[in-house]
Amino acid sequence: MTDSTSPYQGFKSGFIAIAGPPNVGKSTFLNAIIGQKISITSEKPQTTRNRIAGISHHKDAQLIFLDTPGIHLTKKTFNQKMVDVAFSAINDVDLILLMVDAAKPAPRSENIILERLEKKRKPPVLLALNKIDRVKKPDLLPMIDKWRCAYPFASIYPVSAKMGTQMDETAEAIKALLPEGPPYYPLDMVTDIPEEFILTEIIREKVFRLTEEEVPFSTAVSIDLIEEDEEANRVRVNAKIHVERDSQKKIIIGKNGSKLREIGKAARLEMKRLMGVPVYLNLFIRVEKNWSRDARAIRRLGY
Q1: CA distance 278 to 280
Q2: Does residue 123 have a cis peptide bond before it, meaning omega lies within 30 degrees of 0?
Q3: What is the per-residue pLDDT across 29-63, written as a single tens digit (0 to 9) for each?
Q4: Which CATH number does the domain housing residue 155 bear?
Q5: Cα 211 versus chain centre, distance
Q6: How does DSSP classify residue 202?
Q7: Which of 177, 209, 233 is at the close of a domain?
Q8: How far apart (Å, rounded) are the C-alpha atoms in residues 255 and 17?
Q9: What is the pTM of this model?
């Protein structure tokens, strides 16, 4: 029974885990619903590696979304670590937002997710069929019916995070499923992620977008220095890009350093937008052989 004397009567708040296979648009959805870019995106799968929190403020609610790594079948140490992060995020939330790519056939990893949800049956699960801008309208209803038969979802919403389609309606459906309670975060806060982590993710995103397909998945980024120069009104950032082989280092550097300069320029411009001042960015490349198979190296690099 709701306490009628509660100052938060009618106000909803809660944690929502955005879960699903790789490359279904979870990070794009988070950025769109927050109204600000806090999670990196790429056309390549497995871009997100950590649990990333984004806070969506409403007059009558505060929605705290947890973006998670893509859940997929894997035997690799590093990839299994990411899958563990994703499953741990759905263990203690008020709502699970399962996201799938409506424009692609269902991967086997979706069966793994549904099997895990079947065992829990708590909390409620809302399904978002993302990327409907790539789907013919007559194909949507049969798709929705198929998913209704697969699991007792609280509701199913066809959305396009990229185009903004059905985002407000999805937010309202999420609100309806959350408990009453106080806001967990200040109204001017959109993420609980430390600034250093955001800067590493910006650099990693540029590596994802600007290098060859095999390189990004063997790449990690660490920050050595963030220093404010008040007189020059700028911030100095020193960062390392960690790779596993000398050949990957050569690709990231590029001919006469051209690729590294391109990565640095793109990262610097985004950091400037984020921090509101010019950024002097120094990037260094470090070869750390097979770091993604070394549990200690994975922990040291923040994964």
Answers
A1: 7
A2: yes
A3: 998 998 887 775 655 444 444 567 889 999 999 99
A4: 3.40.50.300
A5: 20
A6: H
A7: 177
A8: 42
A9: 0.67
